[in-house]
């Protein structure tokens, strides 16, 4: 292999898989685990806008849609989850034992569907078309944007408030990036024609680079032969540093983190509580977006700064020897194979792990219980019950707001 190929391959691996030190093997489920819950970011998707490339050899699914790589990552997650849970629930879908939830976004629904294809390959009485679809049977799920995509819940006006300093790059860290990286951003702007005063456009550039590398397409000459004082490798890694910059900013900013994921956190706690008491529930799973999945992971006490496509978390619940939970991460490595491994927790929880990595459920609940009551998402969203005379104009504004929101927020 030529040196240039080695560099290219290394770069590709770095670009696809931001976690460089993934364990090679998944942990085993605890013999006493009675319930498993997982959350995941959608798989690899197209950017919200394409760099001009003629002809383009990738991205035919459309803006923001799940790609073939995203499907492979999600299927890898599903098959790894099945290996992990073993016979906790049957391969065949059992309506009494499992529940699945997705954001309304196409990429999340398609991710969940592909995960479930890996997790629930039908057998015996579940088989129905072995000639064409031997390993696939439909599995239902609910779409719930209050849980998994609060930023596009049109009535949630508070969402506009918490996103404003992020969308406008007014948070100190984002402002600082705009100043510190001005020369580079100007270079990106001159070569893309995209307004780099908005870091969202730099993030779109990073998303294009990810796809170009994944699909072995040709990078633009302004990256491979830079006309500013950077090496091509430096340019690439500078561009990649803007990937998901707004989504990560949300997870780091308490008002955004809490509003995006507080309601999901209360749902997770309630499911764990129910399962610890008495319940047929064996598995619950959720598919969402970076800012929401990363936020809920932080609220659960997991130490994590970024989230690659199709990555997320797994929670195991034991009733014996005493009610306790274990927090795990899951990551693609980098496309078809997937790995489930112990999460690093905040110090307060890390100190409470037993020798198997489990934490007393009550201790955990007391630690993560939100200060504000997010189980009432309408209240958290600043929604007052509308008076009857105002309700028709409320509806009109809500429709207008939904249109604006879906335009502004479409990329997440
Ligand atoms: C599930 O697998 C475990 C471990 O292999 C085994 O002990 C148990 O009997 C199995 N349970 C069922 C219901 O098949
Ligand atoms: C770029 O965006 C900034 C901030 O949104 C705006 O003030 C500026 O006018 C835009 N520039 C161009 C050339 O559109
Ligand atoms: C890109 O090239 C690599 C290495 O040759 C290969 O493994 C991979 O499948 C290619 N990607 C696509 C989408 O064809
Ligand atoms: C536990 O289950 C019992 C019976 O199923 C029920 O009466 C009780 O309220 C439950 N407790 C909690 C804390 O959910
Ligand atoms: C489905 O789950 C219920 C509740 O746990 C259980 O009683 C039933 O046996 C399961 N059905 C099959 C076919 O495994
Ligand atoms: C779990 O934590 C609760 C609250 O601190 C405590 O009362 C209980 O004894 C603990 N259980 C075990 C088995 O340590
Ligand atoms: C629409 O958005 C505006 C500005 O964010 C907000 O003040 C208003 O309450 C929203 N109305 C509805 C019905 O969501």
UniProtKB/TrEMBL annotation:
Protein keywords: Signal
Protein family (similarity comment): Belongs to the histidine acid phosphatase family.
Entries under InterPro entries matching the protein: His_Pase_clade-2, His_PPase_superfam, Histidine_acid_phosphatase
Entry protein name: Uncharacterized protein
Coiled coil: none
PANTHER family membership: ACID PHOSPHATASE FAMILY, ACID PHOSPHATASE-RELATED
GO molecular function, a single term: phosphatase activity
Organism: Caenorhabditis auriculariae
Signal peptide positions (record): 1-18
Gene3D superfamilies linked: Phosphoglycerate mutase-like
